[in-house]
Amino acid sequence: MQSVAAALERLRELAASPVVSRVARAFDDAGYELALVGGPVRDAFLGHRSVDLDFTTDARPDDILRVLAPIADSHWEIGREFGTIGAQFSGETVEITTYRADSYDGRSRKPEVVFGDTLEGDLVRRDFTVNALALRVPQIVLVDPSSGVDDMVAGRLRTPSAPAVSFGDDPLRMMRAARFASQLGFTLDDATREAMVGLADRITNISAERVRDEIVKLLKTEHPRAGLDLLVDTGLAELVLPELPALRLEIDEHHRHKDIYEHSLTVLDQAIELEHSRHPGAEPDVTLRLAALLHDIGKPATRRLEPGGLVSFHHHDVVGAKLVKKRLRELRFDNDTIASVERLIELHLRFFGYTEGAWTDSAVRRYVRDAGDELERLHILTRADVTTRNRRKADRLGFAYDDLEERIAVLSEEEELKAVRPDLNGEQIMAILGLSPGREVGEAYRFLMELRLDEGPLGEEEARRRLEQWWAQR
């Protein structure tokens, strides 16, 4: 948190930047109000660099266009129905939105767009006080009608209006509360948390796509755990991602096992750390993070209490893969993401057989073949899945995976594992065996693929001999 004086100096510098000053002068000359709002102002107080330039104004969309068109390099009207016009200046993007006074009827999944007349009225309709800050330009006047600066100093999340009214207006704000708890490291005030618990069922009025987008934004934060805990503790997760709170299995006094919910959050934390260390500077990998968070969701359905106080979860990898496919489909994730997360969960236990005995080169090839494009994510997920406090066991598993990755690297260099194919293609198989396209060609291809995985490259001549031998015996 910056001092107020330092934050105001950052805001003055931002207001004096070429793009902001140019837009501000144009609106002022046209007789309209203009203010930087939300993220850019909040981030100045937090000492963060904001890449967004969001403005609000009393000008209506047609008026915004009339002011922007002569000065912008380009402009667009995609958000016009919500009062938002976008424009670009020297490679920088700005969005300018008419003051809003939206209202919800408590049943519709979208707000009724109503334009407002005052900046203060617009700000008190926003989600949280720390986002209800504005800087009037070109005058350089900070507007804080809900004491958002005080809340930032206190590290507190609070709604500008009564939380029941705010969340009633837009229930998705409850999901945003979880995201900002993680993103900003703030805690909710008691009234806001209580309203989330009391109004949790309102989230069912929100479209799956909007809920999905908030889950993605939460997972992209550096420390998603705080927001995920908040979703579970308030009952929201039970409605949007029920497999997560289901991991809080009751542990009886005779059958003990580790807390699967806490384990899953720890795996997520460790996956993010590995993601940063192995791929510094890369964008957050939402697919990997979903797989880390949900890799054990098959355990509640497969839990068995065994004699001697043991607990088993046989085939929870297979069950979990099916469950995650169903849940991500309901949340309207794209097919590629669904397939990748499903595959990672299905394979996340495969490595642990490696520690029980040395794998043959054939087993290593199959591991790489089965992982396909998800191999690097599988490396990270498998390493992150080691959460034991037994240092000796953790080291043994870490060294074993080091060995596996080294063997994969050696075989990849020797055999181009990522492009593993039989030594003969379909056309060659048909020519050798005198076949037309059909089922038998597929069987022959699979036979050669098994040879390739078991024995490595054979060469065309040896592959032909083995194929003809297999065909004759068949």
From TrEMBL:
GO terms for molecular function: ATP binding; metal ion binding; nucleotidyltransferase activity; RNA binding. Its cofactor is Mg(2+). InterPro entries: HD/PDEase_dom (IPR003607), HD_domain (IPR006674), HDIG_dom (IPR006675), NT_sf (IPR043519), PolA_pol_head_dom (IPR002646), PolyA_RNA-bd (IPR032828), tRNA_adenylyltransferase (IPR014065), tRNA_CCA-adding_enzyme (IPR050124). GO terms for biological process: RNA repair; tRNA processing. Residues 256-399 form the HD/PDEase domain. It comes from the Bacteria. Keywords: ATP-binding, Magnesium, Metal-binding, Nucleotide-binding, Nucleotidyltransferase, RNA repair, RNA-binding, Transferase, tRNA processing. NCBIfam families: HDIG (TIGR00277), tRNA_CCA_actino (TIGR02692). This is Poly(A) polymerase.
